[in-house]
């Protein structure tokens, strides 16, 4: 990455100190069902936290609620702070500007919208027009990121996620993480269905963010990623609740015993 | 084509005080038609053409379909205005007011960078015209229609009014009577004009009618691209724009005619555009309709020679109190002819878009293939859209495909875009741009950029 590009990435992390994400008694309800039940989380900059658990545990719901507004869901909490700020009342795009970024589990396609147009428009909105590189250097930079992820650079000109495989869609989410380098990255099951080489790319991306002192909350329900990426903390979530948390070693135990014995 | 602002704050709603050296009084009569011909010092055959056109105009009925023309008052319009400059070949010679108008619109800097020739129209006469020397050497003619009548009568007489005769419709008849200005383009056999030819129209005088007449002849194996853009200032009384464009595409020749019209919302925009395509020839209409209170326009192709191809790529946006009644006509006469119509429309606020199209495959058109795709996007609860497609297939070996859709902006995709840091209005704007993408990608870059900027501003204005 060239020197002037490093300067450009600072705005998303400038003046970010203290706890990246603080949740106390955070709950999410849908009509009559409790999806997330009074969970507590505390992420510091530079930390990688895994959120693991069986299907339907509420992991994705949690991440999506932190990033987006859903009028059908009711949220309650004792505390919910992003770098010391109340953030749940902010519009989704404003949360992005405060450093929060969600890598989607099932990214959509958008016909007629080339990836590069989406990327550059978003970049302009987040960092401002003056801080956005001109089109050609921007494209060249994105192409180098794409190649680093074993993505054909032609994907930049094609309509967003049109005719891409599941694996490619996830790599595009990695591309965005590398481009925007958010201060708090919420990564929703990016490893499911990926081969070993691609898992290594996930690890590389997360380590890149970690080096920049980003905080990362990564949802997974496979244990393979842990071979390439060592989390600072692991939270185990079942039926909407965090039943256990501890250092990376609890994963090995979990791998042997499975979720049912919790 | 410079900054177009949001439809609500019309950027081009300014005008210079009229300094006209000749202007007919309001209303239409045989005397007015004769006066126009006299002022232009026309030969007898053109004078006769006008008078016959006037008779047909009186005889023809108003269309009973399409938009609401009840507020159109023919007697309340000035049919000819000649600005104070004589047509000039050098930009310096053009009168200062007229120069200022076009400088503000960003013409003719574009010429130096990108275009082969520029013609600019300001109230009925073509005030500035130029054609690069190399094209002149190749025998390419790009002149005002008025000039062509004087200088190239043989060519003009051969084609003028043969594709769109006065009796075609009431507004073609009106144009035949009072036409003024417009372009004449002639590309000789085998000549390929690489850079596009551009014209620009502007209506300045209050209650002015614009009746430009364009005639384009592309000989066998020749190629060219013509781009047109229009603006008009805002007035309280209605203005009328009734143009006629006739295009002749020779054997194995290729031609594209690109228009983006952004007339102010008091203009009736009623245009007849037609191309005749010979064996192996290819014609493409790229038709953008953003302005006017009512547009009725259906660029058509008559596919007369074996293997001829015609297409219309139509983009329309109807905002507050606007009605875009647009589409295309493809007439397959010869065998193995192909056609394509792609119509994309957006209606916002109280706007209404209507797709009106005809695909006709005659008995003689063995193996013809036609495809129609019309998509409408509704933004908001008051927006309206309707379609009137007509498909006539008289040959059993021909195929017509027709796809249509009506949609609103997809909430899930909007949410995804907002999670990428885009504001709601920006997300909506990108979705509208991506909706128009199949057409935008065929626009010259400056037009594409301006259109995207316009969409951004429209979306900002409407969210809240």
Can you describe what's shown?
The complex is a heterodimer of chains A (262) and B (464). Chain A has 262 residues and is α/β, with parallel strands linked by helices. Helix content of chain A is 34%, strand content 27%. Chain A contains 8 helices and 13 strands. In chain A, strands 7-10-11-3-12-13 form a 6-stranded mixed β-sheet, sandwiched between helices. In chain A, strands 1, 2, 4, 5 and 6 form a 5-stranded antiparallel β-sheet that branches. In chain A, helix 6 runs parallel beside helix 7. The radius of gyration of chain A is 18 Å and the shape is globular. Chain B is 24% helix and 36% strand. In chain B, helix 2 runs antiparallel to helix 8 and helix 10 packs antiparallel against helix 11. With 464 residues, chain B is of the alpha/beta class. Chain B starts with 19 loop residues before the first strand and ends with a helix. In chain B, strands 5, 6, 8, 9, 11, 12, 14, 16, 17, 19, 21 and 23 form a 12-stranded mixed β-sheet that branches. Chain B has 11 helices and 24 strands. Chain B has 2 domains: 278 residues, no CATH class; 54 residues, no CATH class. At the A-B interface, helix 3, strand 8 and helix 4 of A face helix 9 and helix 10 of B.
Number of domains of chain B: 2
Within the CATH hierarchy, at the fold level, what is the topology of chain A? Rossmann fold
CATH superfamily of chain A: P-loop containing nucleotide triphosphate hydrolases
Could you name the ranges of chain A where pLDDT drops below 50 across 5 or more consecutive residues? 3-11
- Main beta-sheet annotation of chain B: 12 strands, mixed
Low-confidence parts of chain B? 1-9, 112-116, 203-207, 231-237
- Mean pLDDT across residues of chain A: 89
- Described by its quaternary structure, the protein is heterodimer
Query: Which band does the percent of strand residues of chain B land in?
Result: 35-45%
Query: Can you give the helix content of chain A as a percent range?
Result: 25-40%
- C-alpha end-to-end distance of chain A: 45 Å
| Intertermini distance of chain B | 30 Å
Strand tally of chain B: 24
């Amino acid at each position: 990455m060239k020197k002037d590009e490093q300067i450009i990435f600072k705005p998303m992390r400038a003046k970010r100190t203290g706890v990246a994400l603080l949740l106390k008694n955070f709950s999410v309800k849908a009509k009559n069902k409790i999806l997330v039940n009074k969970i507590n989380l505390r992420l510091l900059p530079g930390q990688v936290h895994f959120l693991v658990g069986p299907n339907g545990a509420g992991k994705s719901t949690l991440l999506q609620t932190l990033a987006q507004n859903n009028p059908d869901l009711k949220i309650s909490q004792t505390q919910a702070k992003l770098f010391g700020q109340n953030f749940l009342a902010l519009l989704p795009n404003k949360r992005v500007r405060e450093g929060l970024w969600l890598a989607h589990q099932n990214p959509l396609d958008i016909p007629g919208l080339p990836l590069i147009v989406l990327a550059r428009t978003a970049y302009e909105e987040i960092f401002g027009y003056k801080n956005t590189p001109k089109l050609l250097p921007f494209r060249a930079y994105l192409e180098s990121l794409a190649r680093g992820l074993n993505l054909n650079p032609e994907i930049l000109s094609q309509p967003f996620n049109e005719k891409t495989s599941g694996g490619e869609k996830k790599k595009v989410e990695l591309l965005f993480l590398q481009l925007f380098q958010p201060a708090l990255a919420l990564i929703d099951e990016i490893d499911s269905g990926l081969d070993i080489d691609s898992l290594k790319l996930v690890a590389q991306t997360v380590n890149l963010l970690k080096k920049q002192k980003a905080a990362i909350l990564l949802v997974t329900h496979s244990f393979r990623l842990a071979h390439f990426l060592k989390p600072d903390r692991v939270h185990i979530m079942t039926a909407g609740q965090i039943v256990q948390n501890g250092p990376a070693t609890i994963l090995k135990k979990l791998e042997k015993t499975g979720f049912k014995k919790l | 084509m410079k900054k177009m602002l949001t439809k609500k704050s019309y950027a081009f709603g300014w005008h210079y005080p009229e300094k006209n050296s000749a202007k007919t009084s309001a209303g239409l009569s045989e005397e007015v038609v004769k006066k126009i011909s006299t002022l232009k010092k026309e030969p007898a055959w053109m004078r006769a053409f006008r008078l016959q056109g006037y008779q047909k105009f009186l005889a023809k009925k108003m269309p009973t379909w399409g938009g609401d023309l009840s507020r159109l008052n023919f007697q309340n319009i000035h049919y000819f205005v000649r600005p104070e400059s004589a047509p000039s070949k050098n930009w310096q010679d053009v009168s200062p007011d007229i120069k200022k108008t076009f400088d503000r619109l960003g013409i003719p800097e574009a010429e130096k960078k990108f275009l082969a020739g520029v013609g600019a129209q300001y109230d009925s006469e073509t005030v500035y015209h130029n054609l690069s020397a190399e094209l002149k050497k190749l025998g390419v003619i790009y002149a005002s229609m008025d000039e062509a009548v004087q200088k190239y009568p043989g060519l003009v007489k051969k084609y003028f009014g043969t594709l769109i005769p006065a009796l075609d419709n009431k507004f073609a008849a009106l144009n035949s009577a009072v036409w003024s200005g417009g372009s004449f383009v002639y590309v000789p056999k085998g000549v390929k004009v690489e850079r596009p030819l551009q014209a620009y129209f502007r209506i300045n005088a209050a209650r002015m009618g614009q009746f430009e007449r364009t005639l384009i002849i592309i000989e066998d194996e020749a190629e060219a691209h013509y781009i047109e853009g229009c603006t008009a200032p805002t007035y309280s009384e209605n203005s009328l724009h009734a143009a006629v464009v006739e295009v002749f595409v020779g054997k194995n020749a290729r031609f594209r005619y690109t228009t983006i019209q952004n007339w102010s919302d008091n203009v009736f925009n009623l245009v007849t555009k037609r191309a005749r395509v010979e064996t192996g020839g290819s014609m493409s209409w790229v038709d953008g309709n953003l302005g006017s209170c009512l547009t009725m326009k259906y660029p058509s192709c008559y596919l007369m020679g074996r293997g001829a191809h015609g297409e219309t790529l139509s983009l329309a946006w109807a905002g507050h109190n606007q009605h875009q009644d647009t589409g295309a006509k493809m007439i397959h006469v010869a065998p193995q002819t192909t056609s394509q119509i792609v119509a994309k429309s957006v209606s916002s606020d109280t706007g209404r878009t209507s797709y009106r199209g005809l695909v006709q495959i005659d008995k003689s058109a063995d193996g013809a293939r036609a495809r129609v795709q019309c998509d409408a996007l509704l933004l908001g609860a008051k927006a309206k859209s309707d379609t009137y497609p007509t498909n006539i297939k008289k040959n059993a070996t021909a195929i017509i495909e027709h796809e249509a859709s009506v949609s609103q902006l997809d909430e899930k995709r909007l949410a995804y875009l907002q999670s990428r840091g885009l504001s709601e209005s920006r997300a909506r704007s990108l979705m509208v741009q991506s909706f128009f993408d199949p057409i935008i990608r065929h626009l010259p870059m400056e037009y594409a950029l301006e259109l995207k900027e316009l969409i951004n501003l429209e979306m900002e204005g409407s969210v809240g």
